């Protein structure tokens, strides 16, 4: 248990009493989460060398019931990470290559007329999957990008006035190139705000790149990757994550951090209330992966940049000074006082 300087703790002082009919305790559920998550992480890292933090953040977003945006230059393994995470779980996976001519119905599905039945029937699109992998999402037009808004937030799709529920778990893993590159459209604010976290792969270090030449030289390691969990496992892990305790002082710390982004002079758009919810959800998953059933401020600090930075818009002056939202979030994390643990 994480303990403060004077025997204090962020853990729940009044843990819930397990119901008499419960088949297993919260402790055993957390143990299962750590064990299964370790298997998934090991499977993904067998394909993605030298990027343990990127893999952990991807797994954190999955367990937080969120969506992941992977942004970086071409060729650093963005799609490989998305495919590795999808293949490590035995569930339905669909992949969409976002192109300028892609239509919204190509993602959500379309109602087609069946001449035999003499009626319209719905043909589901690739969004009807547990994991949707979107390649280069910012190459599609804003109209097509908006097709993901409803399904990412509400886990449903509405076509021709009829609403269809999406199966749980549902996760969008999208890759994109920096907007400065040719042929890309910047994601609208509403779209970016629905992604729980944004990560960058970065170039591998020389040792990892040398190992990549051996493992990727003759065949792709994705061909040897076999599922180590299934959709039912993920649903069970999500339930465990929901039970992770967040102390009132830690919740207030999250709100203080979000509020500070809305008042910062270098930002013309701060973090939304949705960002607050997703930051706390991600912190719960991050703590569970550390085998803890409670969140500490360090969890929020570790996730602040990947969860918040992509939602913020800098002012024109900050852009001229090349002051990125990541710098602002880091400054706020270093400046805001950390809440004292309860006794």
- β content, as a range? 15-25%
- Radius of gyration using CA atoms only: 21 Å
- Mean pLDDT equals 86
Domain count: 2
Number of strands: 13
- What's the total helix number? 14
| SS-derived structural category | alpha/beta
Low-confidence stretches: 1-7, 19-24
The CATH class assignment of the largest domain is Alpha Beta
Task: Work out the helicity level.
Answer: 40-55%
Spell the H/E element sequence: HHEHEEHEEEHHEEEHEHEHHEHHEHH
- Looking at CATH, the homologous superfamily of the largest domain is P-loop containing nucleotide triphosphate hydrolases
Biggest beta sheet attributes = 5 strands, parallel
What does the overall shape look like?
Answer: globular
Q: Which strand order do you get reading across the main beta sheet?
A: 3-6-9-1-10
- In whole angstroms, the N-to-C terminal distance is 13 Å
CATH level 3 topology of the largest domain:
Rossmann fold
Top keywords for this entry?
single chain, 343 residues, alpha/beta, Rossmann fold, Helicase, Ruva Protein, domain 3, 2 domains, 5-stranded parallel β-sheet, two-stranded parallel ribbon, globular, disordered N terminus
């Amino acid at each position: 248990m994480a303990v403060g300087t004077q025997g204090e703790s962020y853990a729940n002082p009044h843990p819930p009493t397990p119901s008499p009919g419960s088949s297993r305790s919260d402790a055993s559920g957390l143990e299962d989460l750590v064990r299964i998550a370790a298997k998934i992480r090991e499977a993904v890292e067998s394909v993605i060398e030298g990027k343990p933090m990127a893999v952990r953040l991807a797994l954190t977003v999955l367990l937080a019931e969120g969506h992941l945006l992977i942004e970086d230059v071409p060729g650093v393994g963005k799609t490989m990470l998305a495919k590795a995470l999808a293949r490590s779980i035995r569930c339905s996976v669909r992949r969409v290559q976002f192109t300028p001519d892609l239509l919204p119905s190509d993602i959500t599905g379309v109602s087609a007329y069946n001449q035999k039945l003499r009626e319209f029937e719905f043909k589901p699109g690739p969004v009807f999957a547990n994991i949707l992998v979107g390649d280069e999402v910012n190459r599609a037009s804003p109209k097509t990008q908006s097709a993901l808004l409803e399904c990412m937030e509400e886990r449903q799709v509405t076509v021709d006035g009829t609403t269809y529920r999406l199966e749980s778990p549902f996760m969008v893993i999208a890759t994109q190139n920096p907007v400065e590159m040719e042929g890309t459209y910047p994601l609208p604010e509403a779209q970016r705000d629905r992604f729980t976290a944004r990560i960058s792969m970065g170039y591998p270090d020389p040792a990892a790149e040398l190992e990549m030449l051996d493992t990727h030289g003759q065949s792709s390691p994705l061909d040897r990757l076999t599922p180590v969990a299934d959709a039912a496992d993920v649903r069970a892990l999500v339930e465990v994550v929901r039970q992770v305790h967040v102390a009132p002082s830690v919740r207030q710390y999250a709100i203080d951090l979000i509020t500070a982004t809305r008042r910062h002079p270098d930002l013309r758009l701060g973090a939304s209330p949705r960002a607050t919810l997703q930051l706390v959800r991600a912190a719960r998953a991050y703590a569970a992966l550390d085998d803890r059933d409670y969140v500490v401020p360090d969890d929020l600090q570790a996730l602040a940049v990947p969860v918040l930075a992509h939602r913020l818009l800098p002012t024109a002056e900050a852009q001229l000074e090349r002051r990125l939202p990541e710098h602002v979030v880091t400054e706020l994390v270093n400046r805001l006082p950390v809440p004292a643990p309860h006794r």
